[in-house]
Amino acid sequence: MMHFDAILIVCVGNVCRSPTAERLLQQALPHKTVSSAGIAALTGQSADVSATAVAQHHGLSLDGHSARQLTRALCQQHDLILVMEQQHIEAVTRIAPEVRGKTMLYGHWLKRDIPDPYRQSREAFEFTFDLIAEATQAWAQRLNK
Predict the structure, then answer these.
(1) Where is the active site (predicted)?
(2) Do residues 132 and 108 touch, judged by C-beta distance below 8 A?
(3) DSSP-derived 3-state class of residue 138
(4) Which CATH superfamily includes the segment(s) 6-143?
(5) Distance between CA atoms of 42 and 118, rounded to whole angstroms?
(6) Strands of 33-38's sheet in order across
(7) Per-residue pLDDT tens for 71-87?
(8) pTM of the entire structure?
(9) Is 15 helix (H, G, I), strand (E, B) or coil?
(10) CB count in 10 Å sphere of residue 116
C-alpha cells in the first residue's frame, strides 16, 4: 500500500475550493501534510470572501491562506494530487505528465466533480462546501487506514 503523506489539492484560482478542502483534510488527517495550489492561481490572494464566510459558518478558518500557482516541482513534491474536476486532471498532466498516476478527483468516492462557486451565490458556496466536506470524509476514511 502506498503511503500518501503529502497531499496537494488543486482547483483553478486556489481561492475557493482547494483552500476549503485543504483545511478540512488537514483537520481530518492531522498527521499528514496537506497543501493546495491553482492551475490559474490568483497568486498571493487570500481565500474568497464567500468561501471564508461559509467556512466560518461551519467552524472552519481559512485565515492566512495565500493562493499559489501549480508548478511541476509542486506536483513532484506530493504523493497524491486531488483535483476538483475531471478537466483539471488534463491540466495537471500538461504541467507534469509524470504525475498522472497519482492524480485523482477530490470527489472520486462521490463519483462526481466539485463545481466552482466563484462569483456565484452564497447557496452555491454552501453546496460546494457540503460536497467538499463529504468528499473529505471519504478520503479521510481511506487515508487513515
Answers:
(1) 11 (nucleophile), 17, 116 (proton donor)
(2) no
(3) helix
(4) Response regulator (3.40.50.2300)
(5) 12
(6) 33-38, 6-11, 80-83, 103-105
(7) 999 999 999 999 999 99
(8) 0.97
(9) coil
(10) 16
Given a cut of 90, whether residue 2 has pLDDT beyond it is: no
Kindly list the catalytic residues: 11, 17, 116
Give the model confidence (pLDDT) of 95-141 as tens digits: 999 999 999 999 999 999 999 999 999 999 999 999 999 999 999 99
**Helices 49-57 and 122-143: angle between axes, nearest 10 degrees:** 60
**Domain range summary for the chain, segments of one domain joined by +:** 6-143
Tally the C-alpha atoms within 13 A of residue 7's C-alpha that lie toward its C-beta: 30
DSSP states of 16-46 = SHHHHHHHHHHHH-TTSEEEEEETT--TT--
Phi/psi at 66 (5° precision) = -135, 120
The answer to whether the CB of 82 falls within 8 A of the CB of 135 is no
